[in-house]
Design a protein that fits this description.
This protein is of the alpha/beta class and about 300 residues long. It has 12 helices and 15 strands. The chain folds into 2 domains: about 5-145 and about 245-300, 3-Layer(aba) Sandwich (D-Maltodextrin-Binding Protein, domain 2); about 150-240, 3-Layer(aba) Sandwich (D-Maltodextrin-Binding Protein, domain 2). It has helices at about 5-20, 40-45, 55-60, 90-100, 115-120, 135-140, 180-190, 200-210, 220-230, 255-270, 270-285, 295-300, and strands at about 30, 65-70, 70-75, 75-80, 85, 105-110, 125, 140-145, 150-155, 170-175, 195, 215-220, 230-235, 240-245, 245-250. Strands 9, 10, 11, 12, 13 and 14 form a 6-stranded mixed β-sheet that branches. Helix 7 (about 180-190) links the parallel strand 10 (about 170-175) and strand 11 (about 195). Helix 4 (about 90-100) packs across helix 10 (about 255-270). The longest helix is centred in the first third of the chain and has 17 residues, at about 5-20.
């Protein structure tokens, strides 16, 4: 089910991470422009024009929207080692937002630990970076309605004797700083030795070289690791339910309404399904449909 191109792309990405570290897979810049010129000006003019003092109007005046995405988490956000482009499921939705505004998408690398600070300090206008909606984060930033529902799982080598959560006691388990799994592992596997890193690509490297015994995070992120290394497998039951939302500055109600409107169009016109089939469905073999929960329903539990 894996295409030769996908294997080549992710194999090269893995080799780059292992040999040089994630930062060396591209240039030293954190930001990636996505085109520009007269055609962009025309696109902005043709898009719906928003009040100048609104977030949408300010973005249109700049001619670009800064979107925080992952650079090392296939299939949601990763840098293609052949083209240098950042691609994935999260990126596709970000491009839809930019298109609706008639502006360029400037992609900024946002790891788990800096996603909220990037929103708060204005580094980005929007974060689409496998970020779970929860009440604690909603005290700090605004969220869109969920655009994807992931499940928490455990990843181990195929020859591991770990079969589930109970097997993590006394073992080294990797997850990302700033992720919900910091707390999940602390409460659900208190006897596990947590290894917290900046990027999930680091977790994969640590598991492959035997420095940790397992990785715990969202199933779709772990599936991306299995695509890169089929000696790994998911074990145990689902640990958590992780509804992904787009993040932006808290209390920006107009921007929230705009983003939820774009998301609704994106889900209803088939683009969500097309992106899912491209980046996830063809590799997992699982069918899926867009989530129908609202932000309020998620936060109310």
């Amino acid at each position: 089910m894996r295409t030769d191109l996908w294997r080549l792309m992710l194999g090269a990405l893995t080799a780059c991470v292992l040999a040089l570290g994630a930062a060396a897979c591209g240039d030293d810049e954190e930001e990636q422009p996505a085109g520009g010129g007269t055609a962009q000006e025309e696109a902005t003019a043709e898009a719906e024009q928003f009040p100048a003092d609104s977030t949408m109007g300010k973005i249109q005046a700049k001619g670009e929207i800064a979107i925080g995405v992952k650079y090392d988490v296939p299939p949601f956000g990763f840098k293609n080692p052949e083209s240098g482009d950042v691609e994935g499921f999260d990126v596709d939705f970000g491009m839809a937002v930019a298109e609706k505004l008639g502006v360029e998408a400037k992609l900024v690398e946002a790891i788990s630990d800096n996603r909220i600070p990037f929103i708060q300090d204005g580094t980005v206008d929007l974060v689409l970076s496998t970020m779970t909606i929860n009440a604690e984060r909603a005290q700090e930033i605004g969220f869109t309605d969920p655009y994807f529902i992931a499940k928490g799982r455990i990843l181990v080598p195929r020859d591991s004797d770990i079969t589930g959560l109970e097997g993590l006691a006394g073992r080294k388990v990797c997850t990302a700083l700033g992720s919900t799994y910091e707390e999940t592992l602390k409460t659900e596997a208190p006897e596990a030795e947590r290894r917290l890193v900046d990027a999930y690509s680091e977790c994969l490297e640590l598991l492959q070289n035997g420095a940790v015994d397992a990785i715990s995070t969202d199933d779709v992120i772990l599936t991306g690791m299995i695509i890169q290394d089929d000696t790994l497998q998911l074990v145990g039951d689902e640990l958590t339910v992780e509804p992904y939302g787009g993040g932006f500055k808290k209390d920006d109600t107009e921007f929230a309404e705009f983003l939820d409107g774009v998301l609704e169009e994106y889900k209803s016109d088939g683009r969500w399904q097309e992106s899912y089939d491209k980046w996830l469905g063809q590799y997992t073999g699982e069918e899926s449909s867009p989530p129908d929960q609202t932000l309020e329903e998620v936060l109310e539990g």
